[in-house]
Amino acid sequence: MASKDAQNQRRGLPSFLPGVPDPDQSLPASSSNPGNQAWQLSRPLPRSFLPTLDLIIIHQQVELLGMILGTETSNKYEIKNSLGQRIYFAVEESICFNRTFCSTLRSCTLRITDNSGREVITVNRPLRCNSCWCPCYLQELEIQAPPGTTVGYVAQKWDPFLPKFTIQNANKEDILKIVGPCATCGCFGDVNFEVKTINEKLTIGKISKYWSGFVNDVFTNADNFGIHVPADLDVTVKAAMIGACFLFDFMFFEHSLAGL
Fold first, then answer.
1. Cβ neighbours of residue 190 closer than 8 Å, sequence gap 6 or more
2. Is omega for the bond preceding 146 within 30 degrees of 0, making it cis?
3. For residue 101, what is the DSSP state?
4. pLDDT at residue 258, as a whole number
5. Predicted model pTM
């Protein structure tokens, strides 16, 4: 147990204990930095836990049917706070044909509900391309919060070497950039996508895919992610980062051998 706590602390997880701060001091507090005002939009998200969170944990549930039959089933995710308490639950809605023949590029809708079953966020993913050699029609997500009200987008940007994305507002104006590593295979270690300001001079957060071990990564496609953000980051941007986390799971980690 002690070794697991130590590993969590190295990742920025406070061992699920209350009152323990995030040891990752590379993420600056935003309230004292006027240069961070670009991503503070102050748009409310009704009945949301997001305004108080600086760490969001996303755990993909293991689908035993998919493991046994070797088929791709709809993804399901638990969204937790830093204490390990579930605050939201996300379910993928897609048709079997898309999951079978379009695989990780499939179009789908992810519906995020609170613990009472009320839908609070909707993530729409259309069928689009994913190639470092083709800059046309790259990946994009639409974020609705509450459902029916578009508050932002996550759009892939063409780059021959690095995974790059932008978080956009409802008018498709760039707010933040997300830059991933050159290699996303996660060989015996975490994979970090850094969330930066538009000029890429300041890192304000990160989305991490946690390496869960040899057995889990080889025999299942269940992934664990952590989203590190300033606590006062606008809630719609936090919602967009949750959507970006789902997109990264589809694009880079969906296959069972992704962790090798």
1. 11, 208, 209, 210, 211
2. yes
3. I
4. 37
5. 0.75
